[in-house]
User: Which sequence fits this backbone?
């Protein structure tokens, strides 16, 4: 090595003529083995799956024909059915989605607070809240709908409750995580000013998580609109009832009307949510 | 939370009683690894005390033990007859509102306006409900505007804090701390995130506020020349202990070597 004076320091430079090769590996042998095992396992699982799903080739071969046949039956689309049987159901679907989401937010807020370890410094309460949130998410909204139809009978109430209970887990989990990601500095400053816990939440945490909160709420509403469209299949009200009836009576022109109505609403919801979210931050 | 706003300029004890008495202060974050090894200090009722020392020597921990953002492991911290190290719950909160704090990273709530950040200094006195409705007492609003005048940010009152530069944010941080009408001002590396010119301006602002309001200030600082220039008292720390405790004039090179180790950097 050569010593080269440079100001007050001395710079050490490797003598390049006698270059030594130094070994560099991103992963340790164990890590590489684990990565290989993962890749191998993935391929293996795919092979096993292909052998067990038992695709019946005959059904697969005439699938294009069937699709073409279905589309032909859907044509011409029965637009006249919209005012008669779709419009009201569509509005009911939007009501189910909106009310269900609002109920979910109301129930998810306290659970989110309990799940955030920086707000609730008790591991037991964190686990309890997370368990509740996971239970809510682990049940599909159609299954929630079946449960509530059994409880309240068929109709929009069952659908609203199904949307609400499925959404609690989603909203609560994301809200809790947003709280945990809040910068601790400003919170510390308010603590140092002698602020009580409620004020620390209102003035320290809430302003930080507010954009996330509204984004979560809107996103969940967007999902709820899509989910509530199918709840009618199990009798929980909304546009799904119209869809189910049309399918059962093989009225494919009507099925097309209903599906286009759902598509239109989902696109409208998407545009609305994107616009509002852009203004929130 | 029912405390009334305090008079505009709290009068510190005039008999020269110390602002702070620290006795045998120890802190271990991990068992057996002390960061503070029995600190004994007396902070005078007036003036600027600068704590200097290498990174990781416990300067921040010392400052944070005073208002209990960090829990001391042992020792006593007497503040106007109260042992801060022993306070809990409401008593701790009430003691904290008497101690203002300025942070290295300003710690403003960025999505709130400058005015709301300054008024946050009153959260120890205003009820959460009123704070939520932004119904701060008129005298608090008057004080906040006066402070914004002092730090020269009145025209930014309704701007969001994230629209400000570093130096401006630190001025808001100082205004928020002073808004508490504190009897002691702590500052944890208040200039470390700022450029040299802004650092001097922030130090000048702290000195002028400390003098006009007659509040003692304790601050951590990395910059020794800045400490010598503005502090009336210097505490040198090394390895969790106090190795120098005296006026800036007495801080000789020998002490600096003892504090920071080595000597090449002094040349």
Assistant:
């Amino acid at each position: 090595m050569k010593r080269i004076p440079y100001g007050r320091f001395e710079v050490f430079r490797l003598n390049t003529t006698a270059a030594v090769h130094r070994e560099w590996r991103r992963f340790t042998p164990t890590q590489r083995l684990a990565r290989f095992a993962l890749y191998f396992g993935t391929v293996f699982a795919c092979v096993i799956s292909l052998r067990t799903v038992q695709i019946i080739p005959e059904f697969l071969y005439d699938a294009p024909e069937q699709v073409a046949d279905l589309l032909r039956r859907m044509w011409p689309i029965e637009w006249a059915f919209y005012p008669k049987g779709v419009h009201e159901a569509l509005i009911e679907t939007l009501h189910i989605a909106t009310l269900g989401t609002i109920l979910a937010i109301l129930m998810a807020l306290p659970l989110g607070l309990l799940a955030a370890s920086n707000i609730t410094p008790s591991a037991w309460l964190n686990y309890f809240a997370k368990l509740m949130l996971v239970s809510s998410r682990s049940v599909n909204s159609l299954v929630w709908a079946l449960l509530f139809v059994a409880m309240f009978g068929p109709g929009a109430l069952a659908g609203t409750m199904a949307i609400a209970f499925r959404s609690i887990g989603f909203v609560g989990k994301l809200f809790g995580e947003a709280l945990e990601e809040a910068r601790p500095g400003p919170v510390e400053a308010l603590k140092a000013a002698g602020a009580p816990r409620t004020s620390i939440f209102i003035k320290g945490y809430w302003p930080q998580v507010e954009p996330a909160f509204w984004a979560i709420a809107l996103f969940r509403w967007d999902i709820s609109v899509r989910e509530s469209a199918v709840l009618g299949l199990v009798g929980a009200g909304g546009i799904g009832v119209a869809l189910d009836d049309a399918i059962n009576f093989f009225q494919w022109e009507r099925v097309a009307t209903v599906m286009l109505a759902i598509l239109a609403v989902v696109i409208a919801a998407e545009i609305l949510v994107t616009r509002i979210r852009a203004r929130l931050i | 939370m029912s405390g009334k706003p305090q008079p505009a300029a709290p009068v510190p004890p005039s008999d020269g009683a110390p602002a702070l008495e620290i006795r045998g202060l120890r802190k271990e974050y991990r068992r057996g690894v002390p960061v503070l090894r029995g600190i004994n200090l007396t902070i005078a009722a007036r003036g600027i005390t600068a704590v200097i020392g290498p990174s990781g020597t416990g300067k921040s921990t010392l400052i944070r033990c005073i208002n209990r953002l960090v829990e001391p492991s042992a020792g006593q911290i007497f503040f106007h007859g109260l042992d801060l190290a022993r306070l809990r719950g409401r008593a701790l909160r009430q003691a904290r509102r008497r101690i203002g704090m300025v942070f290295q990273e300003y710690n403003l709530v960025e999505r709130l306006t400058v005015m709301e950040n300054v008024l946050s200094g009153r959260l120890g006195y205003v009820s959460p409900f009123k704070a939520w409705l932004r119904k701060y007492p008129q005298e608090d609003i008057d004080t906040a505007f006066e402070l914004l005048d002092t730090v020269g940010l009145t025209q930014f009152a309704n701007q969001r804090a994230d629209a400000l530069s570093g130096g401006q944010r630190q001025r808001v941080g100082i205004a928020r701390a002073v808004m508490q009408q504190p009897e002691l001002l702590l500052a944890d590396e208040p200039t470390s995130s700022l450029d040299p010119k802004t650092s001097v301006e922030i130090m000048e602002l702290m000195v002028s506020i400390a003098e006009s309001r007659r509040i003692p200030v304790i601050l951590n600082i990395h910059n020794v020349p800045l400490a010598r220039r503005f502090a009336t008292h210097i505490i040198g720390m090394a390895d969790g202990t106090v190795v120098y405790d005296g006026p800036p004039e007495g801080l000789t090179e020998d002490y600096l070597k003892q504090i920071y180790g080595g000597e090449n950097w002094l040349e």
Observations:
- Residues 148 and 254 of chain A are 28 Å apart (CA to CA).
- The interface with chain B takes residues 8, 185-186, 188-196, 198-200, 202-204, 207-208, 210-211 of chain A (CB under 8 Å).
